[in-house]
Automatic annotation (TrEMBL):
<protein>
    <submittedName>
        <fullName>Uncharacterized protein</fullName>
    </submittedName>
</protein>
Amino acid sequence: MWRAGVLVGLLGLLWAAVAQGQPFPPVGLWQDTLAVGTTRVFVLRPFMLMPTVRVWLDGAALDSTAYHLDAVQGVLVLADSVQGQQLVVSYRTLPFRLNPVYQRYEALPFVPAAVVHSEQKAPAAAKAPVSPPETSLNVEGRITRGVVTGNRQDVTIASALQLALRGEVTDGLTLEALLSDADVPLSPEGTTQRLRAFDQIYVRLQNQHGQLQLGDYQLQLGETTLMAVRRKLQGAMLEVHLPGQGLLQGMTLRTSGAVARGTYRRQVIVPIEGVQGPYRLTGAVGEPFILVVPGSETVYLDGQPLVRGTDYLIDYATGTLTFTARRLITAERRISVEFEYTTGNSARTFLTTQAHLALGAGRQVGFLEATFLQEGDGRAFGKTFGLTAADTLALRLAGDGLATRPGAEPVPFDPEAPYVLYTREVRQLADGSMDTVYVALQAAPPPGETVYRVTFSWVGAGKGRYVRVGQTLNGMVYSYRGPGLGDYEPVRLLPTPMRQQMIGLRAGLKPLPRLAFEGEWARSRYDANRLSLRDAARSVADAYRFWVQLDTLHVPLGNVTMAWQRQYLGARFATFSRVQPVEFARRWNVALRDEAESSGVFLQPTTQIVDEGQLVLHINDKNQLAFELGRLSQQGTFRGTRQAMGLQLGLADLAQLRYQIEHIQSRDWVRAEIGRWFRQEGHLAVPLGEGWTPYMEVLHEDRRQRLQGSDTLRVGSIAYVALQPGLSWQRPQLEANVGLGWRWEQDVWEGTRQAAGQAWTLEGRLQYTPGPQFRTAVELGYRHRQTPPRFAARYPLTETIALHWDGFFQSPRQFARLTWRYAVRSERTPVLQEVYVRTGPEFGQYIWIDFNGDGLPQVDEFVPETLPDEGVYERVLIPSDTFMAATALETRVRLELMPGRQWATLRPLTLVTTLELHDRSQDVAAKRFSLLDPSRTLEGRLRLAQEVYLWRLHPDYGAELSIAGLRTLARRAIGLEKQHRLDGRIGVRYRVLAPWQLSFTAEVQRDRQMSEGLSSRTYRLMQRRLRLEATYTLEAQRQLSGAVALSQGTEHEARLVVWMLRMPLTAELSQARQGRLLLRLEPAHVWANGPPSGLARYLLTDGLAGGWNLIAGVDGQRALPGNLQLTLSYHARASAAAGFRHTLRLELSAIF
């Protein structure tokens, strides 16, 4: 104890002795609004100033104990004990306008009045003038180095580098760089339009002749060519522009070498009738748990790209996709996703070289282009993944298939190992055979018994012997079921070293302004397994494309454009990105929906030739007629022809008509099918003036797939007619659109066409903003389907709903302010498993206490930290492998009344009412949402709060009364958990004299919780607290406070009674532009009668031991000479019964 006192004293002397530091540069004001979903980690803007941070959850202010903030990186971690839906964070940052590598949308700064008011009291100092450097290079950022330690945790190095350089190095040469080595955890950011890259590192040098970029960058080449590629990489990219002379207009050289951040994949999602999501993205071999590279995804619905945040939400951490109310998902929709993902370490490199030569004197008449691409695993592949000689042999024998190795390996017993430990036993099965089984440890093993770390891999539904189960053990546990009764096997899928190469030539010629020729040739080499020679002979293939266009040929009716293209793809030709249209299979009647997926490469299965021609007659800007002819040939397997016509007419703003008709004929020798597909669609709109536009949409399809030599229809021979009249209205303050659709379908039943049902669909959108006092936005999608009994199994759901309604209202005198949100959607939901992951003190919030003494961490033995930087575990909810159909309801209403704006006698009074309801229920009829029925609700939360304030903003006195009720239901992997909680609070504050203020608080809390799987989480707590505090403030720079707090708590089931007396003393010293120091000393005494340990006792005592406890803390920041800043955080807790515990964080930052 005396050593800790000496350490604190020495640091205090150092603090007082330092010279005056340099002031900080001017700051920027920001406010972010975030949705609290499955994540508790939010990435904001870096270089935040701690004293300016204000956090509100659902309109209520949060103190610093409810979240952990990394101000340098701008990462906020919300405590799991805090529940809510909408998080608002306002803060100020140093004015470093860093340019992220990958950025879709950059939010504009917003200056809230509350932040401006608070900053006027303590304005930030302007940056001291410095001598201008010889160059215009600006250096901005912060470098932080420090340590985090404690007597019950290992020493952790705190390191953060966020450095930006921008400016002109020499004449004509500019430098732009962003360096960062901070370890920022990935979080789901798919609910916002703004996407930041994590751990960005790049340096860019640029002049008029080219640029060089090192670090993170996005490579994008030739979107419509055979060499098309789009990747997020880490490495080096060089681009050089060489001037031309004579017929040579110029040359551009691009070359890059990098490491791929993830594996490229295209996945086709089969939608479920009435389910908006979530739909899971998986790895190339079906891995259910992948990490999607942020911003790498492109989602297509019916062939059209969607917008993240508007049309869909994505959780990058869990790889799940959910569609918003704007896009109603039904069984006939077509969904495909192209994305990059990672599952662990990667040694895959990516090399590119491209040379582009422009030709022509005066105008460009042609070009030549050569490209080389290579992606593959490096020579250190085996070392990176820890492959043994046996693993290498298995890969050599696997060819292009999968190779595995046993997933069990003996390890020493460690109760805090970041994985579940297993024992091995031999069991006799029902048929008399024997099988080796791995069983998860339920208690510490006897000395000398061998334990195993076992890796389980997903091998397909019903193809394994193990299943995932929910248990009290911390971690993902797999249980043996028997051969063919599970989805997992105790094997590790061996990563396969691959190599893909492509070389290509592309040329274009434009001899006349209206005549253009273009052609390209490419050769690919793809080896799915570099260690094996079994399939190497089939790895090389060629492809070519030729295109010609005659543009703007004058004819009596207008202008004609003609184009023709041939594309040849050899068998096993491998491309780096998709080169076919998104809906290639539908375009040629290859399949009802495109089912072609990719596992990092698009591999052409057989030789394919496509010939297509187009003729377009442009009568004027609003009228045109188009004809298309095409032929597809896949050697020995498929042949198809296609004819299409499109018409667009506009009659002087009186009417607008679009019509398209297609006819496809096909023959599939593999399936022995002859197909015919007839499609047509039309859209007619008639503007009526004043923004009113009625419209009518008509869609018709008839697809017949017959067995060769027979009239029997095959599966997929569908037909439907759809009509959708609608009305749109657009005004300066209003946008509205509503449509009512009817769809009649036919499908195949026992070889003949039968009526498959009909559906009515209502879709609408409304956005109305008449002024600053009112705004609302509504998106609605509803579908009701009637299905004959014979097709009922294909379409089990009869109703689909997706509704989102937001609004804001404020009375003219601000007497009342109302905000609301209402959302309903049909979806699938997984069962969540609670797991605690060891992350270290930076983001950990929990500690492990072995309450039952079995030596193994149980889920209910992880409790919130009691000292800052003490927690090293983070709570994570992992979704199950299967999903259940559900309907989700979300309601939030907040009403704030200030009667004083209307009646002067009630001026001191403020009323705030909050209602929150979240219910994810299996009751698709949505009749029991508000009841949170345990038999139907999968996850629900109901909270009702009433707050009453008197003189809320008065600086000298005020009072508040609040009461809140909370009810939750959650069906977890370990069983059902229920909670009923009631909180009441009364607070009064009064300034006795100018520097003195007294405050009194009384609180009552009743907490009942029931858990089917964890007996320690079944309790009935009652707590009562009284607190009297006195605060002395001198010149807003020095503040002393002392309090006496008495609390009494009981747990009825265990007959536990706890009395606690706490006497916290705090002192805060601050000086503008110098620093801030906060000292805390708190004696506490605990009297307890009942069980000596357990979760209930921990909650009632706040983790304090029986008898006297002493809590101390020091937090400070100090500006040092040379733009340095010292940060100290030391916290300790001592008691005779529990010993001494302390944590220390010491950091030194250099600010540029």
